[in-house]
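Hi D.,

Good news: the full-assembly prediction came through. Inputs first.
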Amino acid sequence: MTFSRLTIALDIMGGDNGPHVTLPAALKALQENPQLYFILCGDEKIISQFMSPQKSAIRDRIEIQHCSDHVAMDERPSSALRNKKDSSMRRALERVENGDADACVSAGNTGALLAIAYHVLKTLPGIDRPALVSALPTDDHHKLFLLDLGANVNCDSETLFQYAVMGSVLAEEVAGIENPRVALLNVGEEQIKGNDQVKFTAQLLQDAPGINYTGFVEGNDIFTNCADVVVTDGFVGNIALKACEGLATLVLEESKRVSQENWWTKLLAKIALPLLRKIYRRVNPDQYNGASLIGLRGIVVKSHGNASSDAFLFAIKEAEQEIQRQVPKKIKDKIESVLMERS
Amino acid sequence: MTFSRLTIALDIMGGDNGPHVTLPAALKALQENPQLYFILCGDEKIISQFMSPQKSAIRDRIEIQHCSDHVAMDERPSSALRNKKDSSMRRALERVENGDADACVSAGNTGALLAIAYHVLKTLPGIDRPALVSALPTDDHHKLFLLDLGANVNCDSETLFQYAVMGSVLAEEVAGIENPRVALLNVGEEQIKGNDQVKFTAQLLQDAPGINYTGFVEGNDIFTNCADVVVTDGFVGNIALKACEGLATLVLEESKRVSQENWWTKLLAKIALPLLRKIYRRVNPDQYNGASLIGLRGIVVKSHGNASSDAFLFAIKEAEQEIQRQVPKKIKDKIESVLMERS
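Then the structure:
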């Protein structure tokens, strides 16, 4: 099934750079895909100013929803949920909930997006908690879906099991990987390794017929073609990914510092730094790819807070893909069939 | 207090390259420090062959303890503990336990070393579990001690609290940092963030007078000067550090691959790769630094399995430092005083 019309609600005000990044990305997306329609949530004046000079073929495919407020990047999720009823983020999610839009994309405050999306959209039947998932690049340019990246820091084995099912659907539908290999993140590959939670989840997955569970993988495996889906709880996933971000930053900073040592290293660095940056753009998943919030009754894609227009465009395309592939419905069907087979 | 004689028991057979790496490192350490004595545990023939051509000033400071066995790198810890009674690893630890040596250094199987050291040496009074700790380099070449790196994957808040005390002693004694800042690894810096375990540990640390607890830090902070000691459980610590190792490997591989694309990138890479490797040697803590197993009634330093002679020498020096500074005694004193103030 292909959709003749895709409607995405955009949180125009979200992210470190708000409209400066989101509006150019929206324009580019509209130019590239004639089936795309946007509901642009945010300050009407800013949006109009940017969009009114555009051709009517573009303007006809946007609706502006003025919002009097927005969620600050450092705002507490609980406060945003309680107080920001007319924020661009919340309105965009509401337009998904009431069926006007097929998906929502935001570069805003992750914690607030999680809290408001969970509140507004609710989880799918059979899913206790949503998860944040992103595709990491691996050594052979294969995609590896890692979840949860921080939606839930207290996960039990049942939640991890559901994450495995959701990740499996995403890998199959979005990346087109047939019968995706699902692994659990652990401190070793042997069955006896790990904490109680991960050991018990392994048992659940071994016994689940609809899932191609392949065992444990270690931290260093997540950048290799070890599996298509790697499951962990949000505490570990968040810290592991951020530690990688920290290392990437350190290496770039260190390269810059080394480059100042003498004329020779200055020359080396002039040559090496662009190469290094090129590689990092490829390996820094958080900056480059959108992260999807899955397990909800609607599609939500999160772009990085300091995303560039290109990265925000990438997140929009991710949302288009999830709409086309009807990801929430597929997750619902899969979890139903897995749970039925299990019982 | 300075020691006129330092005796270290070395597991000569441990590590991917065994005696080829450990013996040259031992020789260099003896040449550099005339106060150093070694008990070399391993295959007598191999050790003698290497050591007999040396000057008597060197030979007089070694004792060879022949061991008929060694622990394989992929051996199960439980099996090594049960079956490898005459292994070089176990004998080296026993020489610490019976007081012949002041410390043990091994590049062998980490799991087996943890299990055998715990069994042979036992923990200090007031300490439930030992921890594996390493110093990470940060953006301003400051040392940050991260623990636990995988000794215990099921840690409760009390264990994390003890880790904070032990890390604090190590930072003060080994790195000479006065009143070291101790932080907890978490998914956010705000007090409301995190799982139950980390929140409860924060409460314990806030109330502990002898510890300079500074709050939560995130994954990307561990390569910055955010704190002197960062505490987490062995599951998270192991996965975070290995994920960084995986990223480092990916970037190096990707640089090599990019370098094959055309003559220009080939040239760039020829220049960039050595710079990149130089930086990685500095930022790859696991490869470069030894990791200490602390909380035991004796000093145990673990060198990386595929350590070079230089890295193994570094681990020996780490052990020398811990002997000089009487780390186990200081940990014992500190935990006693903290627990007394707490009760």
